[in-house]
Amino acid sequence: MPNRFNPISGNADISDIIKAANNNFAQLDSEAVTKVFRVAANTPGFIEGKLPDGLGYGYLLYSGDKVAIACYISTSGTPVLKVAKDGYDALTATDDQLIFNSTQNILKIVQTGTATINVPSSANDFADNVTITHNLGFIPKYTAYVKPPGGYVGSPTNAQLPFFQYVLYDSANPATVAGWHINGLADVADLTTTTITFRLSIVNNSASNIGNWTFNYDLLQESIT
Question: What's the structural domain count of the chain?
């Protein structure tokens, strides 16, 4: 009860003493429900306990005149956590004005890692795969990228799967049709409740493909099935 206690004068009559005591106890009773730690309405601070406007019980952290972070249990019993972008109020902001909103299903990474397939210099047509055990017990959604050895035109540093490698053939070679042709593929060949398998296939291998192809992946808590 900071700065709100009313001292009782020793010279007051009994009725004033009772009024002052009742007022002080009323302040204490109110603080048992809601506590406000703000000097003024437009200053940083926070409120805890029973929140205004029927939100429920929890915390409101103010950056000034706006609620920067709202963390509470709603009157329906739903946990809510909202973090606003700078200049917005977490209680009134639209979804795109929030940094975090627990009422949305946020993608959650449960496992991350790398896998490597090596293409030897002796290979012409090449195909191989590598299997990683995750043991999550469900088939997870995922994001995955591959980093080729590089050296050929159009090779990205990291390419999202599936990745197709193209090569340009010209009409001077009678065995081919002029134009761009797919001669490489990197993708996820299989995904189960326990493993993820990466696959690499290359036709007419060239020097630029020789070396390690590195797969980077994130497995998500969200399930495909």
Answer: 2
- The last residue of one of the domains, among 61, 79, 101, is 101
pLDDT one-digit tens code per residue, 103-118: 888 889 999 999 999 9
10: in domain: no
173 and 119 co-located in one domain:
yes
pTM for the full model? Answer: 0.65
Residue 189 CA from chain centroid, whole number:
26
Q: Do the Cβ atoms of 93 and 80 come closer than 8 Å? A: no
Structural domain harbouring 119: 109-223
Check if the beta carbon of residue 142 is closer than 8 Å to that of residue 220: yes
**Which of 199, 131, 129 lies closest to 164 in space, CA to CA?**
199
| Contact by Cβ (8 Å): 95, 104 | yes
Which tens digits make up the pLDDT trace of 22-37?
776 676 665 557 888 8
Are 42 and 97 part of one and the same domain? yes
Mean pLDDT of the chain: 84
